[in-house]
Amino acid sequence: MVPARPPSALTAGQGTAPRPRGGIVSGYVFRVLREQLGLTQDSLAEEFRVSADTIAGWESGRRALTAVPVGQMLVYRHRLMRLGSAPALLLSLERAMEADVLLASALDEDDPGGDSPLGAWVMQRHLVEVLAWPLNGVAPAPVNALPTPPRPRRGPVPDGPELPATDRRRFFSRMRRTAEQARGRDEFLLRRQALYLSGYDDEADTADWLAHQQRTERPDDWLTAWLNSRSVAAVAARQGDRDRMEHFIGSTLTGDDAGEAANLNYWAYWIGEAPHIQLSDDFIGAPVPGPWSGDRLMEHLVRGLTPRHGFFDLNTHTLWTLLAARPNLLRGGTQAGRALRDRLPVLLDDRELSARARRELDGIRYAIRLSEA
Hints:
The protein is mainly alpha-helical.
């Protein structure tokens, strides 16, 4: 048995100083918004009719943007629109505020459990990327693709939102405890998402702890077993272990129509193809893929065709099944279709491709030829 990490003095409740609810993620995105507009803190303060210290407090997380009344936050958002802020960045600010609420819940709650917001809805990639940003240092796509700000920064500035080491340990300790205590069908989503976030922990025992947690769960239905298998494979792939992902594809997806449909349903929702959020995982078990177009999913999967990446085999297999289910995606000369056609020769020249990936890429190339005939 792999024991949970013992609580530190901060997590034990002894001598713990009051902890303000932070706003490190939204504060950092807010600063990026200001910098992209080419404004100083003083000039933005004038636009917002607040003090420059207020702007500085928001940007540092010392004053949480999540504490600003909703109506006033909408006023600020409208002013940022009028100033010319990129819509994608404004959406990132909303997601960052939600991420700060989730972080604060994990850091501040004495006993996270069934009331944790982590179990309220099935999270999607755009939120998880922002939530994971202070944990793994990887900026979400809308921020990562930004040009250099028009005004040079003064002095050393962090590359992203910084979570103090004590808070980082506290967060992962809480995720482990939440996963260990969440039991039963009613708390399965909470447990699954806590396990997923625990996978961002870079401690040496993380992989073993996650594997132990998956073994202690005795699924009583097909979908729960499928999701457990996928979670183990996904966390292992994120940590560079491709064998478990290969096993998942071969044993749980290939040749199983229900498993293949679940994989497409999961991916489509994850990258935002679905028209609304889901409150449980049940939609994943639908016997046929949902009424989504697949364009966004195809674009995402094509970008993910990087042979040395842990998710390469899953991306390849998912793209192969997606094009079989949605052959129209190859018609019309889309940008993703052209990129896929151009990359296939290079991918197929890689001698380290698995036999399955090579067969599937060959199948995709043949499908492209048919669509162009």
